[in-house]
Structures are given as structure tokens and as C-alpha cells.
């Protein structure tokens, strides 16, 4: 009989609307937010992210009542940014960020997940801009992200954690390393999404061991290697890739999550590990059983 996995007592596990097929504030293909809250509780999670701004109630009193009576707490809000475009996009960016940050702060959460904008259309695959940044754009990305980290911390008391993501300029090991080396560790941390990093060829354990002090948050996700190979061969955009099932239920994909969690535990800091299995679009009855099985699997890993 195998011994149980050691307890990961620095890891706080949660889930997110993403694991219920929610990508947009309002969409007929998505489950209504009360059902998400009911089912994420039923699945055994106590922590959630806000998801796309406007999906959950944006009135902090209403949101607090709805999460509180279900025993749920919020770990983070999320924003998309295009900060490599430089100061010209600051006001537009801040208008979005301030709304999300205010709601995130009101929930008692301490993190703001920042996702870079896509270089190709998420549905059609049409190029929106070059997939490679110029040296000037890299400098703007670093400087504006540091500015965002400073402003969000000073005005809302939140910590910015930047999320490497498929079809963005912060994706591969080389680009993630370049971004981290170019930014101030006091202002900018990383939200390591294990699925996206594997999607782009990265090794999550190696990243944690190399840049441990920069890891501020985790998203737990796996990719199906066979489907990913087809996605890469066919140059499929991320949205259609998800529809193919490229993000799969643990533990059937890569990377193995137990070594990732063990490496994160070894950092000796408290970390959120939020399950995010991209499934848009999906049948309304599909997410709950997967979420329940995933939560049970993570318990076998000690989380």
C-alpha cells in the first residue's frame, strides 16, 4: 500500500469560472453565475476567482452575500492588457483595471491576474499583430507592467501576477525569462499557468526552481499532448484549440501536477493554486463531475 502524499500546507486550492466554460461576462453558451457558485461549492472548493468582469455580480455587497452564504472566498480578479503598446494605451487600460481592482479589493482578495493581449484572433486565428515584439515593445511592456504593478499596489493594495498565455507575447520559456529579467521583482510577479506553459513548450518545475522568488500564483491545468501536436501542426488559434479539447482533465495530460505542487511547496511561501480547465464552449452538465474528480485528484497529491 502506497503512503499518502505529504500535505501541501502552503498551497490553497481553488477553482474559477473558466473551469465551468465561462470566458465572457455574458454568453448564452455559459452557465448562469448562481449555478457556477452552487456547483463550485458542491465540488469541494472554498476559493474562487472572479472570472471575466461582469459575469459575477459587480456590486460588492451582493457578491459578498452570494459568496459568503456558500462559504466561498475570492483569491483574485483578472484583466487583459496590451501594455507592449506603450503609454498610449495607459488610460484605456487603467479604465478597465480600476473597475476590476476595486471589486477585487472589496472581496478581500490580494491578487490581480494580468493576461497579455493576443497576437492573433482567438476565434478566427487571423493575425492581429506580429507574434514577435520589437526591442522597443519589450521595453514598453516591462515599463508599463511595472507601472501597473505600482499603481495597483498603491491604490488598491493588490499584487500584480502576470499570466503567460498561449497566443500572447509572454508564452515560451525564452519569452517568460526575458519578461521576468526585464521587470522589477518587487512590482511584478508571475501567475504560472501549468497548462499554458506546457502548451508553449515550457517546463513548470524548472521555472519554479529557476525563478522561485517570482512565482506569486498558480493556475493548475493540463494539456493533451496528442491534441496539442495537431494544434501546432495545423497552426490553430487558442480558442479553436480549446474546442478540440487541448486542455484536458487531470491527471490525463501534461505536466504532471504533483511535482509542480511539490516544487511550489518547497518555495516556503503561501500560494494559491487555482484549477482552470479551459472548456469553452461546453455542455452545462459537463463541468461539475470534472471539478469533483479534479478536486479529489488534488487531494491525492496532498493539496
TrEMBL record:
Q: Which SUPFAM superfamilies match?
A: Xylose isomerase-like
Q: Which domain of life is it from?
A: Bacteria
Q: Which UniProt keywords apply?
A: Isomerase
Q: What InterPro entries does the database record attribute to this sequence?
A: IolE/XylAMocC-like, Xyl_isomerase-like_sf, Xyl_isomerase-like_TIM-brl
Isomerase found in the keyword field: yes
GO MF: isomerase activity
- Xylose isomerase-like TIM barrel domain segment(s): 38-300
**PANTHER family referenced in this protein's UniProt entry, alphabetically:** HYDROXYPYRUVATE ISOMERASE (PTHR12110), INOSOSE DEHYDRATASE (PTHR12110:SF41)
The protein's name: Sugar phosphate isomerase/epimerase
Question: Which species does this protein come from?
Answer: Streptomyces albipurpureus
Amino acid at each position: 500500500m502506497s503512503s499518502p502524499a505529504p500535505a501541501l500546507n502552503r498551497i490553497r486550492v481553488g477553482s474559477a469560472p473558466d473551469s465551468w466554460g465561462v470566458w465572457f461576462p455574458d454568453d448564452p453558451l455559459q452557465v448562469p453565475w448562481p449555478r457556477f457558485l452552487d456547483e463550485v461549492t458542491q465540488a469541494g472548493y472554498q476559493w474562487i476567482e472572479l472570472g471575466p468582469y461582469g459575469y459575477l455580480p459587480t456590486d460588492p455587497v451582493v457578491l459578498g452575500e452570494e459568496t459568503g452564504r456558500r462559504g466561498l472566498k475570492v483569491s483574485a480578479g483578472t484583466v487583459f492588457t496590451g501594455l507592449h503598446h506603450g503609454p498610449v494605451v495607459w488610460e484605456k487600460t487603467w479604465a478597465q483595471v480600476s473597475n476590476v481592482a476595486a471589486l477585487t479589493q472589496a472581496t478581500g482578495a490580494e491578487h490581480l491576474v494580468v493576461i497579455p493581449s493576443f497576437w492573433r484572433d482567438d476565434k478566427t486565428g487571423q493575425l492581429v499583430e506580429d507574434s514577435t515584439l520589437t526591442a522597443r515593445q519589450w521595453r514598453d511592456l516591462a515599463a508599463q507592467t511595472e507601472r501597473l504593478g505600482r499603481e495597483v499596489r498603491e491604490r488598491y493594495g493588490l499584487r500584480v501576477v502576470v499570466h503567460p498565455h498561449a497566443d500572447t507575447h509572454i508564452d515560451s520559456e525564452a519569452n517568460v525569462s526575458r519578461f521576468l529579467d526585464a521587470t522589477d521583482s518587487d512590482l511584478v510577479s508571475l501567475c504560472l499557468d501549468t497548462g499554458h506553459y506546457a502548451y508553449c513548450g515550457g517546463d513548470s518545475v524548472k521555472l519554479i526552481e529557476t525563478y522561485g522568488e517570482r512565482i506569486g500564483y498558480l493556475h493548475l491545468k493540463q494539456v493533451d499532448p496528442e491534441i496539442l501536436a495537431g494544434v501546432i501542426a495545423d497552426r490553430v488559434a487558442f480558442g479553436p484549440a480549446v474546442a478540440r479539447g487541448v486542455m484536458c482533465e487531470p491527471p490525463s495530460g501534461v505536466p504532471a501536477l504533483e511535482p509542480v505542487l511539490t516544487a511550489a511547496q518547497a518555495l516556503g511561501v503561501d500560494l494559491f493554486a487555482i484549477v482552470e480547465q479551459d472548456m469553452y464552449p461546453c455542455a452545462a452538465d459537463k463541468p461539475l463531475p470534472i471539478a469533483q474528480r479534479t478536486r479529489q485528484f488534488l487531494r491525492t497529491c496532498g493539496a
